[in-house]
Amino acid sequence: MIKEYSYAIRFGAETKMYTLWSKGGHYGYYIKNLSTKPDQAIQKAKEYIADFEGWDEAVIQEELDISTTEYTLEEIRRRTQEQILQDSIVKKEANIAEWVRRSLQQIEDGINPFDKEPIPNTYPPQYNYFPLDDMGQKSINYWANLTEFKSEVHKAMHDYCKPNSIELIQNANIHFGNVGDKKVRVRVQFVSLDRKDSPYAYAGTIFTFRFHTEDGARIIFSTSSWDAADRIDWQLFTKESKPRKLCEGNWITIEGTIKEHINFEPKEYVTMETSGKQVEMPTGKVYKSTKMIRVKPIGENNDT
Fold first, then answer.
1. Coil, helix or strand at residue 162
2. Residues 124-160, buried b or exposed e (16+ Cβ, 10 A)?
3. Tens digits of per-residue pLDDT, 161-204?
């Protein structure tokens, strides 16, 4: 949110001279002495940067922090810590206000102010911002479900995403079906897909899908087959012309065998006061899920 500059005018340890600093690196570094007068310090800083970087006046004004020169060196020496802190707060608020203004304009233009990537080999650093239309369903749901907003920008993102959000079925912590039942067909909402490298997997990777039924029962399906994973991960949805990857909240119909009802009981470790040893203690919680095997998509009732 806070403006990042490439150069800054500061002052020496004894506040006798304005100095030029680079903001490169973690702490930045001293470049040269400038002047005891604010206007001359600014002019000399601009001349140095123009000669060294080859930047024009507009770029220099954007990349040079001259806020320190708002005060003479004598005024700086007389300023109290309270005044310095207050000035810092004012500058921070001004930077945030500028970020809010710019970000709101980006949203109005269809750009996501939170999704960017650096452009290689650019200095000062420049960024490509991605369109709002490129947001995945998981991101859309995140913004749509916000109830508290840190800024006007967060509220604007919420308002933009709310009409496109999908209601997510919550985990009801129940089992599904009967163990041993085969060719069980059920409509499920996609929750997540995890990939894990494993030397025991046929192709070196285990894919684990998680779904919720309409009642909130969690179904887990794991496979080491890339083909089986792709058949589920890529679906053709109603009103869409070509298959695409599943997104959180999408509904599909699957068929498979109910292998196991899982009851996971987490443990916690308590350190005994007398011996200092850690003792495993039950938490009293049980997390239920259902493991299915030989799962395949049916390709009907798919819905975004």
1. helix
2. eeeeeeeebeebebebbbbbbeeeeeeeebbebbbeb
3. 999 888 889 899 999 999 999 999 999 999 999 999 988 777 78
Say if residues 276 and 213 touch (Cβ distance below 8 Å).
no
Structure tokens at 304: 């975004």
Domain boundaries, the chain: 7-79, 104-164, 184-297
Name the residue among 50, 61, 13, 19 with its Cα closest to residue 36.
19
Give how far Cα 280 sits from Cα of 214, 266, 272, 284, Å.
Answer: 36, 10, 10, 12
Q: Are strands 244-245 and 234-235 parallel, antiparallel or unpaired?
A: antiparallel
3-class SS at 154?
Answer: helix
Stretches where the chain sits below pLDDT 50 are 1
Nearest-angstrom CA–CA distance, 221 and 206? 10
Q: What is the pLDDT of residue 1?
A: 47
Give every CB contact of residue 116 below 8 A, 6+ residues apart in sequence.
127, 128, 129, 130
32, two tokens: 């040269």
- Sheet with 18-22: list strands edge to edge: 29-35, 18-22, 7-11, 64-65
The topology under which CATH files domain 184-297 is OB fold (Dihydrolipoamide Acetyltransferase, E2P) (2.40.50)
Strand 205-213 relative to strand 184-197, pairing: antiparallel
Instruction: Give the pair of three-digit tokens for residue 179.
Output: 């163990």
% helix, strand, coil for the chain, step of 5: 30, 35, 35
Q: What is the pLDDT of residue 281?
A: 82
CA distance 37 to 72: 7
